Amino acid sequence: MTALDHAPSAPVTQAFREVMAGVATPVSVVTTLAGGRPHGTTVSAFTSLSMAPPMVLVSLDRRSRLLALLDDGTPFGLNVLGVGQTDLALRFARSGPDSFAGDDVAWSAEAGAARLAGSPGWLACRVARLVDGGDHVIVLGDVLGASQEPAPPLTYHARRFGTHAAH
């Protein structure tokens, strides 16, 4: 891979933002436990990477407090949110106070991460590698466990939350 010799122009950057806004993505909350406390952040840049072995790819902003807690071998969880969990997505998307503060976020410790109650999809993972990716870091994760409750997914498209309906 090679780096750009120069920064893209403002029109290219704006056009890129618009193209990406037109891509529907799943909404998930990535979590881990550190010092016995849960930590998490909302992501829309998450995808499967490999089936053999099972792996995922998650993109985290370099300024993410969660990223600072991850290193090779660290357990983390992917809580794949459902259509009724917009408030949860927004809560974990905000920077600032602890998203787990208070009693209104139900969770349990599982495989070294915080599993959010009511999330239709759950992946228990371990960091395989951290890879530089511009203003983000790509977390490659080995999937150690998975479970699903069938439910419509929460998606992000055109800068809005929604869901996907199969046709």
UniProtKB/TrEMBL annotation:
The keyword Oxidoreductase is annotated on this UniProt entry: yes
Keyword Oxidoreductase set for record: yes
Superkingdom of the organism of origin: Bacteria
GO MF term (any one): riboflavin reductase (NADPH) activity
InterPro entries reported in the protein's UniProt record: Flavin_Rdtase-like_dom (IPR002563), NADH-dep_flavin_reductase (IPR050268), Split_barrel_FMN-bd (IPR012349)
Keywords from the UniProt entry: Oxidoreductase
Protein name (record): NADH-FMN oxidoreductase RutF, flavin reductase (DIM6/NTAB) family
Residue intervals of the Flavin reductase like domain: 20-163
Matches recorded under Pfam families: Flavin_Reduct
GO BP terms in the entry: pyrimidine nucleobase catabolic process
